[in-house]
Amino acid sequence: MNVLFRRFRLRAESRVLISVSFVAAIAALGITERTLARAVQARGTVTAPRYEVDPLWPKPLPNHWVLGMVIGVSVDEQDHVWIVHRDNLLGANETAASQNPPTAACCVKAPPVLEFDPAGNVVGHWGGPAEGYDWPASNHGITVDYKGNVWIGANEGNDAHLLKFTKAGKFLMQIGKPGQSKGSNDTENFGRPAKIFVDPKTNEAYIADGYGNKRVVVIDADTGKFKRYWGAYGNKPEDTNFGPYDPKAPPIQQFRSPVHCADLSNDGLLYVCDRPNDRLQVFKPDGTFVKEKFVATNTLGDGSVWDIAFSKDPQQKYLFLADGKNEKIYILDRASLEILTSFGDGGRQPGQWFAVHSISIDSKSNLYTTETYEGRRLQKFVYKGLAPVTKMDQGTVWPK
Amino acid sequence: MTRIVQFAAVSLVALALAPAKPAAQQPAAPTFQVDPLWPKPLPNHWLLGSVTGVAVDAQDHIWIVHRGYDSMTARTEIGAATNPKTSDDCCVPAPPVLEFDSAGNLLSHWGGPGDKYEWPVSPGGIAIDSKGSVWITAAGPPEIPGAGNAPARGGGNRGAAAGTGRGGTPAAPPKPVDAQVLKFTRAGAFLLQIGKAGNAGTNDSQDALNKPAGVDVDAAGSEVYVADGFGSKRVVVFDAATGAYKRHWTGGGPDAAFGTVGCARVAKDGNVYVCDRSNDRVQAFDKNGKFLRQGVVSPSTKGTGSVWDIALSKDPQQRFLYVADGHDQKIFILRRDTLDVIGSFGDGGRLPGTFYSVGSVAVDSKGNVYTGETLEGKRVQKFLLKGAGR
Fold it and tell me: Which of A233, A379, B212, B287 has the greatest number of CB atoms lying within 10 Å of its CB?
């Protein structure tokens, strides 16, 4: 409580414009999640989408393929599920059949971009270094945009660029050059950009930039020309090293890398994952700060706010937030940013995660998650309709 | 079981494969399909480390031993077990020995350092003898080239393997080499230790072991067979009650020397089946060490080799051997009489029914197969018997 009040006081003293909704959000923070849970149970009327894991999706990969860290997921308009993974960082012992000479019949590095149909079959695969573009030293984030083009980010030390391909893997555009990042005010290169979102209304792409930089960048999705960018609270981004996050310290006025997602809602609000700061910041498309939500604020290191997806109803009433450190998906009411419930737990079994990194949703409201580090899976969570919330922490959600 | 039926209706994927080389004179191998929802989720945000041993007792309870903290990445995997904590409550290492019932419920848990014995730096195999005692070997940390990943990506803090301690604190003094076998009651009370940590033996030692990888006890519960192991290259037999040395032997037949002795399994008829892991072969002996025959499994496998662990089928004649191959990511099925490979199932991956370093295997009284995955596999899986074979 004290931390929250201190946060509010400091915020009030800052020159940040405080909107009415921002005040409301901060006031809501004064209630602990446990209190919320009690309130939810007492009211008995709160509903949230309910999910169960599909333990047999996707189907086994062909060709003895195995996945490296699965570092992005996106569902296209045909409900095909696209992932990108780090084939180049797989260990020799788990890719024995890819060694020269092979040391076993299994396994083989799968191509970095894989496309699955709704039944979980691999129906497309491509990616990797080629003439004409700089394949990332470490790919990161995949987005299939409204035109059906595929965007891939990059987060190795020198990576400073984005790539755009057709669904068939034909190269279209590269924005930025490896090794050329000049920091968070560079207007030609990125700084290890994490994720891309393309706005169908304006054809602008929003870039979470990233692991090196501390900003959101908006570009023209056809030309790649930089249009605008901003930092936390809409501030001009700075590349100051703020050191590790400290939950007892006042919130810093800049993003703390990585800026890990930047997704625009149908009603024109941009939600930005400020991952190690354990917060989600909300902006107007022009960069005006609207409000923020702190999540699991004792989380250190990698942080709690990794990726988000919006629910598929026209109002996008719910927001799904992946926390790869506490191994949960939180379900938030998007308007209030109140956490309604969460599901998942750590582990290697179906419905559990090791570092749930990315999340996406299909037209039927099914969720897809991917795991980095040693998790290395794509999993599907089947939408089971709206249900009364009975637990704040549902744990592993297996079929009933 | 109702859950399984339900899943069959939702199209459970059959993982069993046809025999590798169909031949009219070979028997049909048993067939299996994975139960993707076994065991049940662990309580308390517990995680398994590298699972090094799996065994089934006379009540069809499934026992596993895993490497716990030392096999986990402190920064990314067990944020609730480091100092300071970096996550709220997920996750922490589960106790090293876990007992499940056949429905996958966790029944008991124990293990770890104690005053009267030397807990392994890294456990290896586990066996439950006919009297219900639990045997665990001290096999030393896995020494597998190419295991793990680019360290910066995975967090890099790999406990003992990386020479660092809890939560990235300075490295502790090196621990003595694993060279012992431990015996407990099923409740975890200490009974017996054979060998001494740090006192690494040779192929001729009578009272010293060197990274024993596997253990088994004969049907009468009177003699314990130790696969010794990753350091020495032999099978050693001790009195199961006293721990007294009885006999030992090294590899037999052509190219006799064992490479890596990963397991030693005793059949009801007294024959002993030995995993000569790095030589890709199973060698069969009588209980006195007389060489009988050998069977080669996936002879093109290099590196760590193909024969990581063996389980015997539970039919009265024990007609089949199940060989866990943690390098090809398969369970091979062999005829016990000829040691011919007649089938296999499994593939590499992290989905149900696929494997990352499947290094241990066991069978229950109904013929269901259980597997343990070491290194970054970190799972125990159940495969339901669907066709008995003939």
Answer: B212
DSSP H/E element including B34: strand B31-35
Measured CA to CA, the distance from residue A83 to residue A372 in angstroms comes to: 12
> What is the distance between the alpha carbons of residues B56 and B126, in angstroms, rounded to a whole number?
10
Give the whole-angstrom CA distance, residue A387 versus residue A368: 20
* CB-CB under 8 Å, B146 with A373: no
Of B303, B311, B321, B299, the C-alpha closest to B359 is: B311
A244 with A180: CB under 8 angstroms? no
SS (H, E, C) chain A: CHHHHHHHHHHHHCCCCCCHHHHHHHHHHCCCHHHHHHHHHHHCCCEEEEEEEECCCCCCCCCCEECCCEEEEEECCCCCEEEEECHHHCCHHHCHHHCCCCCCCCCEECCCEEEECCCCCEEEEECCCECCECCCCCEEEEEECCCCCEEEEECCCCCCCEEEECCCCCEEEEECCCCCCCCCCCCCCCCCCCEEEEECCCCEEEEEEECCCCEEEEEECCCCCEEEEECHHHCCCCCCCCCCCCCCCCCCCCCCCCEEEEEECCCCCEEEEEHHHCEEEEECCCCCEEEEEECCCCCCCCCCCCEEEECCCCCCCEEEEEECCCCEEEEEECCCCEEEEEECCECCCCCCECCEEEEEECCCCCEEEEECCCCCCEEEEEEEEEEECCCCECCCCCCC
Of A244-248, A379-383, B141-145, B299-303, the range with the lowest mean pLDDT is: B141-145
Mutation target to probe the B interface, by most B beta carbons within 10 A, among A64, A89, A90, A107 is: A107
What's the average model confidence in pLDDT over B386-390? Answer: 83
Sequence letter at residue A147: K
DSSP for residue B176: P
**Mean pLDDT across the stretch B369-380?**
98
A positions 75-94 inside 8 Å of B (CB): 86, 89-94
Among B87, B91, B327, the residue with its CB nearest the CB of A104 is: B327
A64 vs chain B: nearest CA distance in angstroms?
6
- Partners of B334 in the beta sheet? B321, B341
Cα of A244 to nearest chain B Cα, Å? 12
Q: Which residues does B361 contact at the CB level (< 8 Å), separation at least 6?
A: B54, B309, B310, B311, B322, B323, B324, B331, B369, B370, B371, B372
Residue B145 has a pLDDT of 66
Residues B115-169 pLDDT 10s: 999 999 999 999 999 999 999 999 999 887 666 433 333 333 333 333 333 344 4
pLDDT (tens digit, 9 = 90+) per residue, A169-200?
Answer: 999 999 999 999 999 999 999 999 999 999 99
Tokens 């419905």 -> residue: A351
Residue pLDDT, tens place only, A124-173: 999 999 999 999 999 999 999 999 999 999 999 999 999 999 999 999 99
State whether the Cα torsion B89-B95-B100-B106 is positive or negative. Answer: negative
What interface predicted TM-score (ipTM) does this complex get? 0.89
Hey, what are A166's tokens? 């057709």
pLDDT at A23: 40
Structure tokens belonging to residue A128:
């990797």
Residue B33, SS3 per DSSP: strand
**What per-residue confidence (pLDDT) applies to B164?**
33
Is the separation of the CB atoms in A280 and A262 below 8 Å?
no
Q: Which of residues 331-370 of A touch B (CB under 8 A)?
A: 345-352, 354-355
Q: What is the pLDDT of residue A43?
A: 54
